[in-house]
Amino acid sequence: MITGVNTINIHTMKFIIYNGSLTADAESNTFAVCKMLQLAFEKLNHECEIVTMRDLNYTNATLDIDDDLKPQIMKMFDADGIVFATPIWWGGHSSHIQAMFERMDPIDSWATENKYQPFYNKVFGTLVSGGGDGFQHVHANCYNFASHLGFTIPPQCNIESKAQGMDEIKKDSDTMEQVKDCAINMSTWAQILKEGNPAKQGRHGSADANESLSEGKRIPRKKGQKAKSKKHSDLYTDENPKGTIHGLGFKDDASARASVTKIRKSGRSHAHKIQAAVAMEQRAKAAGKAGPASIYRKFINSMKKKTKAKNEEAAGVGIVTKQNATKDVPVGGEYMNVKKLGLAK
Description:
CATH superfamily of the largest domain: Flavodoxin domain
Number of domains: 2
CATH topology of the largest domain: Rossmann fold
CATH class of the largest domain: Alpha Beta
Order of helices and strands: EHEHEHHEHEHHHHHEEH
Strand order of the largest sheet: 2-1-3-4-5
Largest sheet: 5 strands, parallel
Number of helices: 11
Strand content: 5-15%
Number of strands: 7
């Protein structure tokens, strides 16, 4: 029994521990520490579930796939905090935790596209068991991932259990103290987030380096400025010639249409194609070529619709129809399918 954990006046919350051990629960050191943390949460009058990933039949992918793992991921939307638990394998986290990183990638893509972070107001912790080096490396990888997806990481929520064997783990005072710190701090910070709701005023925008397209006013490069200086954005200087799509033009509508065809068939990435079209559109505008500029703009918008459609299909966002329109959300507006997103209360 865990002693020394004082209950505090906070609401009942939900926590999920994702156990990434490759060993069966009955023999797993990682699972033993997970049980200790679960008991600590329950002593604080919270709900805590342990999901052992090795027991699930799932596919390793960066896609939204209907298998045993998907409903476990969807539970995160209704939880107040989650913990990734893993042994140290060759200095790093387990393959199951890596699978979580990959399978949550569609959520990251949807959040970027829709400028909405569904994991704001939720806390994240880590639990690592094993001997030797690797603790800090594993914590760092998990925290980098969680922070990028919008989780809040409270202090001292990184359990490191070096004890080996079930009996030794349960008697290890260092492990015990870290479990208490993690349970109390995650609960406390989760309560603060629930009451303060920083997500309401926080910035939900997210910049994807591959699709960060500046469509504002271009600043000409001045004499003496370096080619890649942030103080200018020259329309006519190819500052990164590698991968350039050659032969694009804007002298007339025919030239612009032919150029759009070249961009489509260039074999470049989706983001690269948009970037090329944006540059040509702005060159056309600067030259007073409204027709060619509009042709490039039409292509740019069509490409953005493809990105949005893909993310909508994965995450559950759609366009309001006459049948589901309301006073606040008229026909043609966007809606979030909170049931599919797991945001429904």
